[in-house]
Amino acid sequence: MGRGAKAATRGRTDPHGTLLLVNADCCGHFLVYCNVLAEWALSRGLRVDYLGPLAEGRTFARLHEADSRVRFLDAAGVADGADWGEPFSCGWIRRAQERLRPELCVLLNGDALLFESMELLEPGVRFPAPTWAVATFAHRERDACFGEPYTARLNELLNAAGPGVGPFAGLFTLDERHARACPGGGARFLPDMYRDFVQPARALRSREDIAVERALLAFLDGGSGPVLPLLGKFDRRKNPLWALRLAAGRSDMRVVVLGERVSGPGEAEDDAEIDALLDRLHGLGRAFVRFSYVSEALFDAVLRHPCTGMVPLPYQCHFGSSGIQLMAHRRGRPVLVSDQGLMAARVRAWNLGRVFRVGDEEDFHRQYAELERLDPASFAPASRAFMRYFSRARLWRALDVMLETGPLGPLGLSGRGGQGGARPPRIAPCPAQGQEDAAAALFRRGLDAAAGGDLPAALALLEASLAREPKALHRLLRMGVVLWRMGRLAEARQAFAAARSGGLAEEQGFFARLTLDLCVFLQRRGEHSAGLSLLATLFAVLPGFPAGAAMVEAGTSTPESVVNAALENCDLPWSVWRTAGDALVHTKAWDSAARCYARAWELAPEEGGLALSISDVQRYAGSFAEALQTLDLLEARAPDQPGLWCKRGQTLAAAGRAEDALAAFARELAGSPFAEAAAGHAHRVREAEAARRAGADG
Length: 698
Hints:
Blueprint: H1 3-9, E1 18-22, H2 28-43, E2 47-51, H3 59-64, E3 70-73, H4 75-79, H5 90-100, E4 104-107, H6 110-116, E5 131-135, H7 140-144, H8 149-159, E6 170-173, H9 176-181, E7 187-189, H10 207-221, E8 227-231, H11 240-248, E9 254-258, H12 268-283, E10 287-290, H13 296-303, E11 311-313, H14 323-330, E12 335-338, H15 341-350, E13 353-356, H16 361-374, H17 380-387, H18 392-403, H19 438-451, H20 455-468, H21 473-485, H22 489-524, H23 528-541, H24 547-554, H25 559-569, H26 574-586, H27 590-603, H28 609-620, H29 624-637, H30 644-654, H31 658-666, H32 675-697
Parallel strand pairs: 1-2, 1-4, 2-3, 4-5, 5-6, 6-7, 8-9, 9-10, 11-12, 12-13
Helix pairs in contact: 6-8, 10-13, 11-12, 19-20, 20-21, 21-22, 22-23, 22-26, 23-24, 23-25, 23-26, 25-27, 26-27, 27-28, 28-29, 28-30, 29-30, 30-31, 30-32, 31-32
C-alpha cells in the first residue's frame, strides 16, 4: 500500500481537523468499525489518520487507500525509532497524539486497555486530544452475575470524579441496557457498527472474492432445501458443532460456512467431530465451506437468499452484541440464540426469533423446529422495526451528538449535520411485543439485584425463577455464583455441580477463567493476600475437591493450605496452576508456588517460561542446586528457550559463583527479551566482584 510514502507526501489543506483511529487489532469487526467511522468523518469534512495493523485486502483498505484525506500509519513509522514503551499502551497513545496532533481520537482497542492497563486508573493520566474508547464487553458483569477485571476498571473510571471518564472524554458502549443503567451518562450507546455501509465497487474487489461469490451463488441456487449459515469466526465460542449436528440430522438441510477457523487447546475431540460432519455433508453436496477471511458481501449473499429462512446462533459464554445477528435482522431473518446476555434480551424484547436454554442441545433442536413451524417470514416486520436503530442516519446522528465536545463543537460539526446539544439516540424497550414470561422476568430482576449488590434479594429471585422453570440450568449456575459471593460455598458447589452435569461445563469454565483474571488483577494491584484468598474460594467450588468448601468455610485453613490440597485433588488446566503459582510467589510461599508451577509445566511442557518461574522460586528459597537442575531439564527439552541463560546466571550469581554466572549471562541469546536483563545482571556482578577485591586488597 505504500503507507510510509503516502503519509510523507499527502498535503494537509482541509481546515476542519483530523480524526485519529487507533486500532491495535486487525480483526474483522474492528476494521469494519474503522471503515464506518472513517465514512462518518469524511462526510463531515474531517481528515482521517488510521494507526494500527491493516490487512490490505480488507474493505477498509480497498475503499480508502487512494483517498488523499486518509492516511494509513503503522506503529513503528509513527514512533520513528523512539522508545515510547509498549505499543498501544496509554503512554504510547499519548505520545502518538502529541506527534500527530488530531482534533479527536477514537480508540478501537478500548477493550485491551480495560482488560490490561493499570496506568489507565492513575488519576493524572490524560490524553492530549479528546479521546473516546469503544467498550464492547461493557455490562457483561450484569449477565455473568459478578465482576471481573474489565468491569472493575470500567466502573472505577465511570465513578471517578471529573468531566470525563478517567482519561477519556467518554466511552462508547454497544449495549443499550448499559447506557440506560450507567450513572451520569459516562457510557453512551453507540449502535453497533456491524457492517460497511458502503461496499467497494466490483473493480475494487479481489478476483478470488468474486470467484468465491460465483461458486457460493451456484451452490445456493442449486438446491431447494433450507440453508443453515455459519458466518464469521469459526471457533468454540460460537459453538458450530450444534449447528452441524442439526444439519446432519436432516435429509434436506444444507450448510454454508464462511470465516476463519480458530481452534484452541483441548478442542481436538470437537474438531474431529466437526471435520467428520463437514466431510459427510460435503460428500452429499450439502456443504459450502471457505475457512478464510471473506468479504461482508458474501455474508449478505447468504442471508438474503430465499433458502435462508432463519439463522441459529448457538453461542456460548457470549453476553454482548453480535454483528451476525444484526446482519440477519437486516434481511428480515429471525435468529435462535441462547437465553442469556444482550442477544437474548433483544430477541425477547422485540420478538426477533426464539431463545433456547443455555447448554441444552435438545432445547436448541426443539426451538429450531418451533421457528420453522411459525414461519420465519412472519418475523420480518419486527426485524425492520428493530433495525431502524442501526441505520446509517441513526449512527451518524449518534456520532454527531456524542463527538461534539463544546457548545458549538470544536470540530465544526454544528450546521453540517451536528446536533448541537441534542441527546444521542437510544433504543427504547419494546414491551408490547415482548416474549418475557414470569420466570424470565424473575431471572432478570435477580440479575439486577445481584448487580446492585443486594445478594439476598438476588438469591430469592433466582430461586423463584428456577422453581418456575427447573430445566433452565443457567439460572442455577447464576444462583451458584450468588451463593459463592455470599460465602455459602458448600451450597454453591452443589449448584455448580448440578449445572455442570446438565451441560454447562463450558459456562462454568468461563466463570472460573474470569475469577482467575480477577486474582491476577488483585495481584497486580499489590493486593496479594486478597488474590490468594479469592483463588482459594474458587478451588473450593471446582470439581474434584469436595473438601475445599468445608476447609474455607471452617475458617481454620489458610488460602495456601487450600491451594496445596487442591494440588492433590483437582484436575485443572495448566493456566490455573500458573495463576496459583503467581499468587503464592507474592506471599513468599516458595514451596507451594514451585509445586503449582511444576504442575503447570507438567500439563504444558511446551511452555518453557514455567520452568523459568520454577527456577526463580527455587532461587528465592535459596535452593540453588534445585534451580540449576530445573534449568538443566529445560535446556535438555528446549535449548533455545529465551531466558534460560539469564536465569542460570542469576542462580549462579546468587550461589556465589561469579565467573560461572558471567559466562552464563554472556550466552543469553541475542535478540532475546532477556538479553538486556542479562547484561544488567552481568554489570552488577562485575561491580560486586570489583568491590569485593578492593575490600580484600584494603
